[in-house]
Design brief:
By secondary structure, the chain is mainly β. The chain has one domain: Porin, CATH 2.40.160. The protein is built from 2 helices and 19 strands. A hairpin with a 7-residue loop joins β14 and β15.
C-alpha cells in the first residue's frame, strides 16, 4: 500500500496546523485590545454575514471548558502527513510519512472588566523513515488587558517559542535539515474607540536566535536579530457600511552578528477603506507605499507601491469566497542577499456542504525578489480539503496540498496528503 493511500482521506491540515501553531494555541482568546461599550464603535460592527467556515451550531461545535473564573479551549491534534519531497529538492526527491501530535490550550478570564490569559502548545513530528528529521516544537504566551474606560483599553503579551523553520519559508535551504530557532517577543497595544472613530497603536519587540544545522555551509548566527516594530492606525466611519483607514508602520531590524552589515529600517504607509456592504462584501483594501533603508551603503533604498487587501464575498449563506494581497520586506536567510521583497496574493473558497461538513480550497502565489542578487523565486500553493464535525468533541480534517517553486536556485514540486483528528475535551 502506498504512503499516499496509507495517509488517506483528503483535507487541508498542512495550512491549518501551521496557522494554529503560529498562534501558539489552536484558538487563542488574545486578539489585542478590544472595547465593547455600545457607544464605542457601533459603526464598525461587521456582522451582517457569517463565513461558511464560521457557522456555529449547538450540539455540533466545541464548547469552552469553564474553570471557575476562567474559560479554556483545550485541543489535541493527531495527524498523518505524506509528502513526496521532504527536503523540497529538485535533485534529491525523498518521500516519507510523518505522524504529528499537538496538544494545545488557550485560556482567559471571564471577568466583566480586564482580562488575563495564557496560550500554550507543543507539537511533535515523527518521520517514519527519516528519523533524523523528527522534531518537537513548543510555544507559550501570556496576555492581559486593562479596561481603562468603556472607550479605551490597553493590552499586551509575552511570547516564547522554540520552532523549526518551515521548508517553504524564505530562509529554508534545499536538501538540508530544518533550522531550529527561538522566538522571544513582547508587545503592547492600545485602542480608543467612539461611535465613528477608532485609534489604535502598537509597539513590539522580537528576538530571533537561530541554531546551526548540518548541510548548511554557513553559520546561522548571521540571521540572529532583534526587530522593533511600531504602528499607528486611524479609522473613521463615514456610514455604517464603510470607513476610511490610514496606517503608518515602522520596522527596525538589527542583526546581532558583528561581522554582518544587514541591518535595515523602514516605513510602510497605507490608506484605504474598511467596509461591509449590502452587496455581500466585507473586508479592507488599502494602497501601500514602502520605503526601506539598508545600513549597507552598497545597497540602495527599497521603494515600492502595492496593495494590501483582504476581502470576503458571500454569494450565498453557505458559500464564502476570499481574496487577499500583501507586500513585505523580509530577511533573505542566506549569505548572498541581505533582504527580499515578498509579494503575496491569492484566493480561497469555503462551502458548507452540511452543517457538519465544510469544504475548502485555496490557491496562493508568492513572488520573492532577492536583494542585491538577481535571484527571483515564484512559489505557488494549491490545496483542497474538508473539515468534518463528528460531534462537539471530535473533528476530522483531511486534504491535499501541491506546492511548486520556479527558481534558478531552488526549484521543486511537492505533493502532500493529510489526515488529522482533533479532540476537544
Amino acid at each position: 500500500m502506498s504512503k499516499y493511500t496509507s495517509a488517506a482521506v483528503a483535507a487541508l491540515m498542512l495550512s491549518s496546523s501551521t496557522y494554529a501553531f503560529a498562534q501558539v494555541a489552536d484558538r487563542s482568546y488574545y486578539g489585542g485590545a478590544t472595547v465593547s461599550a455600545p457607544d464605542a464603535g457601533a459603526f464598525f460592527v461587521r456582522n451582517r454575514y457569517t463565513a461558511a467556515n464560521a457557522h456555529s451550531y449547538p450540539g455540533i461545535d466545541p464548547v469552552p471548558v469553564r474553570l471557575g473564573a476562567f474559560e479554556a479551549r483545550p485541543v489535541l491534534l493527531v495527524g498523518a502527513i505524506s509528502t513526496s519531497n521532504v527536503f523540497l529538492s529538485d535533485t534529491n526527491e525523498t518521500s516519507d510519512t510523518l505522524i504529528a501530535i499537538q496538544p494545545s490550550i488557550s485560556t482567559a478570564s471571564t471577568w466583566s472588566r480586564h482580562r488575563i490569559g495564557i496560550d500554550a502548545s507543543v507539537r511533535h513530528e515523527e518521520y517514519l523513515d527519516l528519523a533524523s528529521q523528527s522534531a518537537t516544537e513548543y510555544g507559550v504566551r501570556g496576555f492581559g488587558q486593562v479596561d481603562v474606560s468603556s472607550n479605551f483599553a490597553i493590552a499586551g503579551s509575552l511570547t516564547h517559542q522554540n520552532q523549526r523553520e518551515n521548508r517553504l519559508g524564505i530562509g529554508s535551504q534545499a536538501g538540508a535539515e530544518r533550522v531550529e530557532f527561538d522566538r522571544t517577543g513582547a508587545e503592547a497595544n492600545a485602542l480608543y474607540a467612539t461611535d465613528r472613530l477608532r485609534l489604535r497603536g502598537r509597539i513590539g519587540i522580537t528576538e530571533l536566535d537561530y541554531s546551526d544545522v548540518p548541510g548548511v555551509p554557513f553559520s546561522q548566527d548571521l540571521r540572529d536579530q532583534e526587530a522593533i516594530s511600531a504602528s499607528a492606525s486611524a479609522q473613521y466611519a463615514v456610514t455604517r457600511d464603510w470607513a476610511v483607514v490610514g496606517e503608518i508602520t515602522s520596522v527596525d531590524r538589527d542583526y546581532t552578528d558583528p561581522a554582518s552589515n544587514r541591518d535595515i529600517s523602514g516605513m510602510t504607509y497605507r490608506a484605504g477603506v474598511n467596509f461591509e456592504l449590502p452587496v455581500n462584501l466585507r473586508g479592507q483594501v488599502t494602497g501601500q507605499y514602502q520605503d526601506f533603508d539598508p545600513e549597507d551603503p552598497a545597497l540602495g533604498n527599497i521603494e515600492s507601491t502595492g496593495l494590501d487587501a483582504s476581502v470576503q464575498w458571500f454569494p450565498t449563506e453557505l458559500t464564502t469566497a476570499n481574496i487577499f494581497a500583501s507586500q513585505s520586506i523580509s530577511d533573505a536567510g542566506n549569505t548572498t542577499d541581505a533582504n527580499v521583497e515578498v509579494t503575496r496574493y491569492g484566493a480561497g473558497l469555503d462551502h458548507e456542504l452540511l452543517r457538519t461538513l465544510v469544504l475548502t480550497s485555496r490557491v496562493s502565489f508568492e513572488n520573492r525578489q532577492f536583494n542585491p542578487s538577481n535571484r527571483e523565486d515564484d512559489l505557488t500553493l494549491f490545496s483542497v480539503g474538508a473539515n468534518w464535525k463528528l460531534n462537539p468533541n471530535v473533528q476530522v480534517r483531511g486534504g491535499y496540498t501541491f506546492a511548486t517553486q520556479d527558481s534558478t536556485v531552488n526549484p521543486f514540486d511537492d505533493h502532500r496528503v493529510t489526515i488529522a483528528l482533533r479532540f476537544f475535551p
